[in-house]
Every structure is written in C-alpha cells, then in structure tokens.
Amino acid sequence: MSEFNMNVPETGSLHPLVEPEWLEKHLDDPDLRIVDATVQVKLWPFPHVRSGRRGFKRGHIPGATFADLLKISDPQRPSYTFTMPTAERFADHMGRLGIGNGTRVVLYDGRENMWAARLWWMLRTFGFDDAAVLNGGWKAWRLEDRPVSSKPCEYPATRFTPHVRPELIVGKEEVLTAIEDPTTCIVNALGRRQHRGERKEYGGRGHIPGAKNVTAWEILDRKTMRYRPAEELRELFRPMLEAERVITYCGGGIASSSDAFILHLLGHPNVAVYDGGLIEWSADRSLPLELGE
C-alpha cells in the first residue's frame, strides 16, 4: 500500500486501499463499517447477474454487513448495467447500512475487487471520502486464514448526507466529444477479445474509437487478487497518467470503476467513469465502434 500515492486528494482518514492485516487489527473499531459488495455474474451465453448475499450468509469477514448493488443501483435501468441511482436513493441505502458522518468504511467482494471499487466510486461520487477497498478482498482474506463468521451483523442506521460530484460520472455525449479531444484518454477495462471485436458480449463488437485497453483483470495478481505493485500499474496506465483527463468504461460501469480506482490511487486528479458503458453505447447505432487493437 505504501507504494501508492499517499497524498490522494479528497480522501478522509483512511487510505483508499487497506491490507487484510490492517483490517484484522481494526475489526472492533466502533466507527468502522465493513461491507461486502459481491455480485455474481455469468456472461455466457447471455448476461446473468445475481446478488452475492447467499455466499455472504455462508461466511464473511466478522462484523461485515452486505450491500446489494442490484438494489442500490438505478431501478429504472437494466439490473446488469448498475448505473448510478439518485442521490436520495443512494443516501437512503447507505444510511440503512450505518454509513454516514463519523464512520469509516472498508469495502470488499468475493470476485476481482471490482464490485468493492464500484461502491467505493459511488461513495466518492456522492461526497463520502472515508472509504477504502480491501486489497485482495475475500480471496486474500481466506488465503491468509483470517477469521470468518456467519453471524448476521447490522450497524445502527444513520444519516448519509450526499454532496454530489458530477464530474466523476459521464454520459455518452461527453464520451463522444472526448474521442476528438487530444487532452482526454479513454480506457476500456474489458477483456482483450471484446476490445478487438472478437467477442460480442455487450451488444456490439469492438471498442470506442481511440480507447486504450487495460483490463480490470490484468491489474491483479490472479492468485491472491491483490493489486499488482504500483510500478507495474504505472507502466500499464502510463498513457492515461500522461493525459489531462481520463474516462474509463466497460460493459456497465463495474470493471471501469476498478480502472478508475487504480488511476486515483496512482494520483491522477481528473478521472471519470462512463456509467452507461458499452451496453448503452452499442444500443445507439449512430455511435462508432472500432475493431482491432
């Protein structure tokens, strides 16, 4: 963790990335909220998502509660897009989870950290900075044989006051403008085959013109699910770190939040997530897609 920029702007008393050993020492901190944000996804032969609550009930980090992103996200959009809800809806869900002024939050998931990163980005978008992603999530926690509980946990409800940062989320019009903007770098967090157009998983083949490709999987050590060392990540994201502004995208706002989270950790001050992603982009036949690298 110390390899990353410690002077990240707009953060509270928690560094945005915490290690399992730190969390185990702080499980009993009265102001700490531990949140499992897991969503289970199956893409083939068609997208299918379901809550990770069942796995959470079988076992979770002691004291953790569960955040259901299927319910928190915008109910007016298809559930597999996970687009941003209204500030009021988000505040209501966070308050019922016990997240508000005077609390700190550690987020984790049982997948590739991207669900935790998504909720982290949502919290930041709505003005809450004292949140962190657990490096390696549930996988690293279990590999290191740390304590596990199946006991239900609920934190006292509180008031979450949103302060929206609209610049952290963009729509398709801003992405279309960014294609011709030399100061903005677009990065696709999806897999290589989807990027090149060899697979069609989100309604269209290929990538948004000019987009670079750093997948949300290559930023991880696949054995531990911890993020790769900072120097390796800086090399992967070098074109983005040199750009004035970065827009990340994926299929529906999840993997792109993982790339955005890492760019924030590396100190980039101007990163946004394209919330609608390739699902929205592909649905508009007037919008361009490129094949190849």
From TrEMBL:
Keyword check for Repeat: yes
Q: Among its keywords, does the record have Kinase?
A: no
* Top-level taxonomy: Bacteria, Pseudomonadati, Pseudomonadota, Gammaproteobacteria, Pseudomonadales
Gene3D superfamilies, alphabetized: Rhodanese-like domain (3.40.250.10)
Which UniProt keywords are present, listed alphabetically?
Answer: Repeat, Transferase
Tell me what organism the protein belongs to: Marinobacter albus
Q: Which residues form the Rhodanese domain?
A: 49-150, 194-290
Please name the InterPro entries in this protein's record: Rhodanese-like_dom, Rhodanese-like_dom_sf, TST/MPST-like
Q: Which GO terms describe its molecular function?
A: transferase activity
Q: What class of enzyme is it?
A: transferase
- What EC number(s) are associated with this protein in UniProt? 2.8.1.-
The name under which this protein is listed is Sulfurtransferase
